[in-house]
Amino acid sequence: MMTHPEPVLQLLIPLLAGGWALHAYRLYQRLHRVRRDPLTGLLTRDGWSRAADRVIRRHRRATVLLADLNGFKAVNDRHGHDAGDAVLAAAGERLAAWCGKNDVAGRLGGDEFVAVLADDARLPDRLADLAQLLRQPVDHNDERLRVGASIGAARMSELDTPTLSAALKAADTAMYRIKGRTRGGRRLLVPALATVRRIPALLAHRARLAA
């Protein structure tokens, strides 16, 4: 007695489809994990770059920033890798919370973080807030761990070539310029921004003296 193939196929097709769907879901989960840093939950370089490109295309006033934790190696050396991981996790959480709904944060690796902002409005104030946020102590195993932060930013509207790679390069240059002005990881971006805010008042004062 021969078995007709139609009923067998009708039974197999849903099973095969379900198996492929499960396989596809597991593959997606693996890819998702690869694009997410397991320690901070932020996007890794590749995932962030894709998201940042979308933000840049949609928002003409986008800004790219890089943040580097000053004093992180000292924390790692003195308190161990678990303490270093706690600092990185806290920094990632704070950066994500600081970002707006259209902004995207990521971790490039080590103690280097990145973000793309959809709007550059109030940028000096926002960066000062972020610097203040990142240098707040992290409690770990009855220790208060402290790091500083150097932050460089590049407005897309000010670049000759408004691409993500150009913005990252400009932000990196700005970040190391800021890092060169810090001392022991404690004097961060805030003094430099405060000086920028005082420029109009200084110019007005000089104009009064000239008159």
What does this structure look like?
The protein has 211 residues and is α+β, with helices and mostly antiparallel strands. The protein has a single domain (45-195), classed as Reverse transcriptase/Diguanylate cyclase domain (Alpha-Beta Plaits), CATH 3.30.70.270. It has helices spanning 5-35, 45-58, 72-79, 81-98, 123-134, 164-181, 189-210; strands at residues 63-70, 104-109, 112-117, 138-140, 143-145, 148-155. The strands form two sheets. A four-stranded antiparallel beta sheet has the order 2-3-1-6, sandwiched between helices. A two-stranded antiparallel sheet has the order 4-5. A hairpin with a 2-residue loop joins strand 4 (138-140) and strand 5. The longest helix is centred in the first third of the chain and has 31 residues, at 5-35. The N and C termini lie far apart (112 Å). Mean pLDDT is 81; it is low at 183-210.
Q: How far apart are the first and last residues' alpha carbons, in Å?
A: 112 Å
As for the number of domains, it is 1
User: Secondary-structure element sequence?
Assistant: HHEHHEEHEEEHH
Residue windows where pLDDT falls under 50 for at least 5 positions: 183-210
Number of strands: 6
The 3D shape can be described as globular
Bin the helical content. 55-70%
Key words describing this protein structure:
211 residues; Alpha-Beta Plaits; 58% helix; disordered C terminus
